[in-house]
Amino acid sequence: MRQHNLSRVLHALADEGALSRAEVAGRIGLTRAAVSTLVDELLRGGLLSERGPGRSGSVGRPGSQLVLADQGPCGFGAEIGVDHLTVCAMDLRGAVRARIDHRMGPGGHEPGAVLAELTGLLERLAAEAATHRLWPAGLAVAVPGLVARGTATVTRAPNLGWREVDLAPLLPSGQGPLTVDNEANFGALAELWEERGAAGNGSFVHVSARIGIGAAIVVDGAVLRGAHGFAGELGHVPVRPGGPPCPCGARGCLETYAGEAALLRAAGLAPGTEPGGRTGELAERCAARDAVALRAVRQAGSALGIALSGAVNLLDPHQVVIGGSLAELSPWLLPPVRRELARRTMLTAGGRTTATPVTGSLIGPAGPLLGAARSAVRGALDTPARLLTAPGGGAML
Amino acid sequence: MRQHNLSRVLHALADEGALSRAEVAGRIGLTRAAVSTLVDELLRGGLLSERGPGRSGSVGRPGSQLVLADQGPCGFGAEIGVDHLTVCAMDLRGAVRARIDHRMGPGGHEPGAVLAELTGLLERLAAEAATHRLWPAGLAVAVPGLVARGTATVTRAPNLGWREVDLAPLLPSGQGPLTVDNEANFGALAELWEERGAAGNGSFVHVSARIGIGAAIVVDGAVLRGAHGFAGELGHVPVRPGGPPCPCGARGCLETYAGEAALLRAAGLAPGTEPGGRTGELAERCAARDAVALRAVRQAGSALGIALSGAVNLLDPHQVVIGGSLAELSPWLLPPVRRELARRTMLTAGGRTTATPVTGSLIGPAGPLLGAARSAVRGALDTPARLLTAPGGGAML
Question: What is the value of ipTM here, to two decimals?
Fold first, then answer.
């Protein structure tokens, strides 16, 4: 129970930034005295610091503001992409304090080699974090594939050619608990945590496009994972059942119209050897009013709108957020998406027909990485006992 | 807290049928002594009865079995259909003790007239229930339309021609709290409560076809309602975006291929003046190997499979259950549905590709009515104080 209350104090400060003891007490529904005891323990453990009127005077004066520490435990986030590996360290306040980007050559996604590379990056990240007096209290890894619910096993990642790869034995131990999840889910969580306003009150569909197209379905602030952990496969929703063949084996999936390869091909841009890098070029052509590029994006938007019409009819979310690389194309992509939704969804309110709002993500392509790091931070805040006694915390001295 | 514990005793018995005091204690995690006090109060209030070894001897002997009373409070369920009104009374044990079916003439769905008719039926039902010493402790009404979340207002019911109809002022008061919900949601809850085995562990998509095609999405045992209460509109998921026009204004919605009117037309059966009554005839023709009927059902199954592929890719349910009138066509409808799902969904498990199981509902067309009545019963079990002091209960004497 005490652990639970310590955790609630930490989460209150993570959500609000800075609070007085009285404000913490009000938020979590404990007495001022109980909160003072908890706060003292967290201050001694180095997880909080104090600023404002009380800072240099008597600790605990009413006006003093508490904030989470910017030293000590932090969350490590990692993203495995088709063409890149990225890792970052986020402190308890949510600031990214170190980040390493690594570009991978074409081909060669053998799991052992990729994870050895990632392990090296994480060790470099730990060394860099240590110079800021930060140590990893948890690691979360975003992958472009399906992850079996509650495990670290990638069941299937078609764009990496992975099947049934358990990441746990291939990653460094000693960086705290490991979480592995689909990049779309972490992208949606970033949207929820970093941009709460944009996410409405927390029921939305978050489209996360890279090479493929995934989505996360957030219902009342939680990701809907599905029976096996495979929910959100928007890229394989049928758009035209007799349409072009998809690598998944079906025909006319959304990815065959709006996946990166299809989109670049329709725009007359060769997919090339560097996947992921050419959406910006496409956006430039659209901005320059290139007719072929505009038509390609319009058609992709239309296909996306048809697939999303199915999702909105089924789920009735407050909002649809387009993230990932498609977000760069928002000015040209969103109008046809909205047109299809207005035409094909049953939503009515107060007798007037209003379509579900569609917006581009403001976070951009860093979403999955930030969501992963934030998830590691939040996991750490759930278990204060671990933070108070762990290496480098200087706790309980 | 005591009310909450009384309610837990009642729900334990509703779930299990008959339990000894010790078994109740084990299930709800209270001491034997605490449970005995609660049980005594419920026995005095007439909400439980006792049978088995202890029945005629000393009350409370270890071996005696407790069951919910089959007299006293009951739940009233009602269903408003395009061509019928049905009402029933379900006792606390889940048995339907009275039911009245009323066939409506063609046309004429003016809300005031329909609800006056329904009020008359509910009054007759109350009179019949009284002859079994049952009184209504709650009323739940299933409607073929969208109901605004948390209200008794039908926002839109296209097949009735209703928009923004608040049922509360038009129904009898004095039958306990009123709940109004979409028939598909009540149908799914019936599947969950009456046929738990069939529903897997409680995450499934339940298709509920009548004139239109609705669905309920059940996640971990709860209906996903959506931001406005409009989730589950499977009938308007696009199957072929340029397909036939749908009364909703879009093109190629599932209903234009597998809705009752489309299905009967494709089978060469005129939709006729009595909607809802001809699926049985179609099933007979299929059983007699009528080629036109078989092709019509196969095409409808294919369209249903395409729309469900989208739903399964997005939601990853344990199972899909086909209820409502389409359940009658299961032998001919399910093979094409399964074929499309096998082709178009990404689900893999243990390296083998396995499609999400699809089954026909065993409850049949009574699902929404039974789900509504059961919902009224469960609502009553949530508030034992009301049951212990209400008319006819003979409580606290």
Answer: 0.83
